[in-house]
Amino acid sequence: MAIAKIDCFAGASGDMFLGAWLDVGISEDAWLAGVRPLLEGQGEIEIARAIKQEIAATRVLIRHKEGHVHRHLADVEAIIDAADLPDVVKRKAKDAFFHLAVAEASIHGTTPDAIHFHEVGAIDAIVDIVGAMWAWHLAGEPDCYVSPIEVGGGSAICAHGRVPVPAPATLALLKGFPIYSSGLWGETTTPTGAAIIRVLAKAMPVRPMRVDAIGYGAGTKDLPVANVLRISLGEWVGAGPDASEALHRPESHGGHAHHHHHHHHPHEEANGGHHTEHHPSHAGEGTTI
């Protein structure tokens, strides 16, 4: 089975995931054909090369004319359901938004269905998440493993004012994953990036792998380290790790893909928080949502 190692030494965001998947070798035309309809003719997707600390990477920029919107979880799910994409892609994307809604609900003391998505409910963020899942499918649905995650530090401005970094929803989404901060770098891992990690990845076990393809996805920051997300595709080498060695994905909401009955999901997931509004807006140059 193919595996993908996701290196988050400069954080993770939706656009960084898109760039890394495209850079690792999936078909750009096939990917665009799947996600362009989400824009409904009201925007464009720009794919370009970028250099970050002398590392060549792929940059994906989604431009959309949409004004400030407040979508509920059901609104986002309806957009995803209407997409002409494989069921597994739609299910993974809805999983990510459900996790975001649960995170926000835990932070604001309400329920996932009542949450208003701000930044992460915008079309560009929907394209980020759906596009990341579509790219993963086009890459052959590899088992994904993530390195310890650089989450940034300091504070950032969002729809609710100034919040600590990592944003509350980002931290809630990454419960159970190894994280660290390299200092006051601002927001390096966004709620959108954290939601993609939570749905797709497990923590990387100590086990050798053979690397066959490497992709770099560029963020928008200039950091002391190259602001890129790296995805390495390959295979495990040798025998598997024993149970004590492997790190496992945190418990999710029970693995249910049918999100039309959100009240049936265990509430312990609610303290795993998910972000919809704390996502810092485009303050400074932070990696995009």
From TrEMBL:
UniProt-listed InterPro entries: Ni_insertion
Keyword Nucleus: no
Biased composition (Basic and acidic residues): 245-254, 266-282
Name of the molecule in the record: LarC family nickel insertion protein
Highest taxon in the source lineage: Bacteria
Record keyword Metal-binding present: no
Source organism of this protein record: Alicyclobacillus sendaiensis PA2
Biased composition, class Basic residues, residue ranges: 255-265
Keyword vocabulary terms for this entry: Nickel
UniProt region (Disordered), positions on chain: 242-289
